Amino acid sequence: NAGVTQTPKFQVLKTGQSMTLQCAQDMNHNSMYWYRQDPGMGLRLIYYSASEGTTDKGEVPNGYNVSRLNKREFSLRLESAAPSQTSVYFCASSEADRETQYFGPGTRLLVL
Amino acid sequence: SQQGEEDPQALSIQEGENATMNCSYKTSINNLQWYRQNSGRGLVHLILIRSNEREKHSGRLRVTLDTSKKSSSLLITASRAADTASYFCATDHTGRRALTFGSGTRLQVQP
Questions:
Q1: How far apart are CA A21 and CA A78, in angstroms?
Q2: Which residues of chain A are within 8 Å of residue B3 when distances are taken between CB atoms?
Q3: C-beta neighbour count of B24 within 10 angstroms
Q4: A108: buried, middle or exposed (CB in 10 Å: 19+, 13-18, 0-12)?
Q5: Best B97, B103, B106 residue to mutate vs chain A (most A CBs within 10 Å)
Q6: A57 to each of A109, B17, B44, how far by Cα in Å?
Q7: CB distance A42–B48 less than 8 Å?
Q8: Tell me: the pLDDT tens digits for A69-100?
Q9: B48 three-state secondary structure
Q10: Which of B3, B41, B98 has the CB atom closest to A105's CB atom?
Q11: Reported confidence tier of residue B1, pLDDT bands at 50, 70, 90
């Protein structure tokens, strides 16, 4: 089992460009999450999906959209990247809401 | 904010010593979890303690929970250089559908 995979590992964007971060899990989990982590800080929840077909805003959703494509995949889209979105993005999944989460390796995004 | 707060922010100890880090939160919880993050990597779950439990052990880890004080502690005994990492608590609050992560304790274990 690969667990939670994320692509790409690293990306550089110019202000105003768009991109989609991909996340997939092979543990048959119901819930999936997107977080951002800024230097020296904890994780802040961007969006989550409690089950296939549902998505909800987290703490910092502005500037992002998500798609729960199927049970395995949960993508995060930046429509018009801004320097404030420079961060490390982590995807996670769990069997159910609020239970143990399993994290991907992260995507490092730099917006110039 | 309901975010958990870890204390201390940073901790440096010698190999073989014990490391204790604390987490405080503001509103009632259903469970509290501890995670470890090695530099540049994703978080890894260590242990979950439910609100009706007071203490849990897992190998060299001991977690306590005091719901009256709204605090938890993580003790790592006989630390090793490989324990060098950031440690985060995550709280499951009633009425919220996702965990809330604290800002972490950076542990440095000197060989």
A1: 8
A2: 42
A3: 17
A4: middle
A5: B97
A6: 21, 42, 24
A7: no
A8: 899 999 999 999 999 999 999 999 999 877 89
A9: strand
A10: B41
A11: very low
Give the separation between CA A32 and CA A43, rounded to whole angstroms: 15
What Å distances lie between residue B101 and A17, B59, B69, CA to CA? 30, 23, 18
Q: Which residues of A touch B58 (CB under 8 A)?
A: none
- Give the position of tokens 């990597």: B41
Q: Is A8 within 8 Å of A107 (Cβ atoms)? A: yes
Chain A residues with beta carbon closer than 8 angstroms to that of B49: none
User: Mean pLDDT across the stretch B45-54?
Assistant: 96
User: What is the DSSP secondary structure assignment for residue A4, as one 8-state letter?
Assistant: E
Q: Tokens 């849990």 identify what position?
A: B56
Return the structure tokens found at A82.
């801004």
Distance of CA A44 to the CA centre of its chain: 11
Residue A77 in tokens: 């889209």
User: Which residues, other chains included, contact A39 with Cβ-Cβ below 8 Å and sequence gap of 6+?
Assistant: none
